[in-house]
Design goal:
mainly beta; 2 domains; 4-stranded antiparallel beta sheet; 13 strands; about 0% helix
């Protein structure tokens, strides 16, 4: 990402300015650039890195006993995004997921609740 500061944006000459990038689902390096005594056009270069998140959880029966080999599906913004099976401890995990998306985790079979909705996921979630 490149941010250009130009005098044509009606910035008063000689001023001090800080440029800070932002974007949903991304982190930036450096976090900002400062320009002191700005008297010419300047350029700030930023590297954007997509933020990845994960979802993990556990499937248990009504007695809170872990359930092995349960298929669990994941949808991202309404489209199929993967399937995993629980391990012997009933645990499941979906990793390297795009931050900011809407996810639904659904186990195959009859469970309560029948699915978990994780809207606008921006941090790791354990359910």
């Amino acid at each position: 990402m490149v941010a250009a500061i130009t005098r044509s944006r009606n910035l008063p000459g000689g001023g001090n300015y800080t440029v800070t990038p932002s974007g949903a689902g991304y982190s930036f390096g450096p976090a900002s650039y400062s320009f002191n005594n700005l008297d010419i056009n300047r350029i700030a270069n930023f590297v954007a890195t997509q933020t990845l998140v994960s979802i993990s959880g556990k499937v248990t029966d009504s007695s809170d006993v872990a359930m092995n080999s349960v298929s669990v599906s994941l949808t991202k913004n309404g489209a199929a995004a993967g399937t995993v099976q629980t391990n012997v401890l009933g645990e499941l995990s979906f990793g390297n997921l795009e931050s900011g998306a809407n996810y639904v985790v659904t186990p195959v079979g009859t469970f309560a609740p029948s699915s978990q909705n994780l809207g606008n996921l921006t941090t790791k979630r354990h359910r």
